[in-house]
Design goal:
Blueprint: H1 3-6, H2 16-26, H3 42-81, E1 85-87, E2 96-98, H4 100-131, H5 142-153, H6 174-203, H7 209-214, H8 217-256, H9 260-277, H10 282-294, H11 309-312, H12 318-333, H13 340-351, H14 359-370, H15 376-379
Antiparallel strand pairs: 1-2
Length: about 375
């Protein structure tokens, strides 16, 4: 096995899942080049739909089966399989009644489901990449592309942007960032609690405990499906992004390679993209490194950003203002979706006279990119 398979790209010795993902991804025989990588054929679209359907069904089945295997034995044979044991604990005067076997059984089921879903994610990432002809072995960035896809399959957050001085959380306090991340983690637990509460309210106090517990089936099935959907969507946009980024950056370079005013605005524009997202995204990192390298702009971990940069954009020459707007929009679209925050940011830019593109255009181009129809209309606009 190649050296890259033994040592991960995450600064430590590769885990089992990283090695497994590497084997799956490097088994692909990607041979497409250029625009073929971000323009999907009807055959590729059909293959992607089949992969998505199969992955959804398996994730939903895993979530449903996990709840069934947990609660059906507990309610039918609980007294035999999961007896109550009195356990004396320090600092407590009276023994505590615990179902130790049930706790162990619950943990084992959770671990088994996590392992299954992780392997399912990796399989989906590999299948989607293969259907799109990636990773291409002739690509000089083959190993980087593989490692980026491994990160998607393992749902690892990549924070390479920090290495080039771009911070999506600029302007937020540390507590704001922490609370933002906690809110995301609480979604599944809170929705499960609310469904059980709703069932109890509807059926009243006579509701069977097993019925209440099994009501969690659609909740966990939904969140499993949501999880694999996120992974599959992220895989799709990462697979198609590199060649599209190269084409976009080359177009900008051909037009503005001798324009010092545009060069001076690049770092500030990249930071504006990042803060509009409030998240680290690998495609933005690729865009940032590509344009900085192409225009030979020195990378700094602590660049000197211009205060109120976006408000000052109308002061640039007309063609530079257009290029800044185009770079801003491309950076926002490159993750394949438009969040409420990004839509609001774009509207603010329109009101400031910085963004010449309408909301309808942006939505159409973002969808075209995700659906594999390319961005030719945007690139020539």
């Amino acid at each position: 096995m190649q050296k890259a398979a033994k040592k991960s790209a995450f600064g430590k010795r590769a885990s089992y899942f990283e090695r497994y993902a590497y084997r799956e991804l490097t088994r692909n025989k990607g041979d497409q080049t250029g625009e073929e990588l971000f323009l999907l054929s009807e055959k590729e679209i059909a293959a992607l739909k089949k992969i998505r359907t199969n992955t959804y069904l398996k994730a939903i089945a895993a979530g449903s089966l996990g709840v069934i295997l947990l609660y059906v034995p507990y309610h039918l044979w609980g007294s035999v399989l999961f007896p109550v044991t009195s356990v004396s604990l320090p600092l407590l005067a009276n023994p505590v009644a615990l179902e130790i076997e049930f706790l162990i059984y619950s943990v084992l089921l959770v671990v088994a489901e996590i392992i299954y879903l992780t392997r399912l994610n990796i399989k989906a990432v590999s299948a989607i990449a293969a259907a799109c002809g990636c990773p291409a072995r002739h690509d000089l960035n083959f190993e980087d592309n593989v490692n980026a896809l491994i990160a998607v399959g393992l749902e690892k957050k990549q924070k390479e942007l920090a290495a080039i001085g771009i911070n999506p959380y600029e302007g937020l306090s540390k507590w704001s960032v922490v609370l933002y991340q906690i809110a995301l983690k609480l979604k599944a637990a809170l929705s499960g609690f609310l469904v059980k509460l709703l069932v109890t309210k509807v059926l009243g106090r006579y509701a069977l405990r097993m019925v209440v517990d099994l009501a969690g089936i659609p909740v966990y099935a939904f969140w499993n499906a949501w999880g694999v959907r996120t992974v599959m969507n992220e895989t799709r946009v990462r697979v198609m992004a590199p060649p599209l980024i190269n084409k976009f950056v080359q177009n900008l370079f051909d037009e503005f390679k001798n324009n010092d005013q545009f060069k001076s605005a690049i770092y500030n524009t990249l930071q504006a993209i990042s803060t509009s997202k409030r998240s680290f995204h690998y495609n933005h990192f690729l865009l940032a490194t590509s344009i900085l390298n192409r225009f030979e702009i020195p990378v700094s971990t602590d660049p000197n950003y211009q205060e109120n940069f976006l408000k000052n954009v109308p002061e640039f020459d007309a063609e530079v203002e257009r290029a800044i707007a185009k770079l801003l929009l491309f950076g926002i679209m490159i993750d394949g979706r438009l969040s409420v925050r990004e839509k609001r940011a774009l509207q603010n830019l329109r009101e400031a006279g910085v963004m010449p593109y309408t909301e309808e255009q942006v939505k159409r181009w973002t969808k075209d990119y995700f659906e594999g129809r390319g961005l030719e209309e945007f690139l020539v606009s």
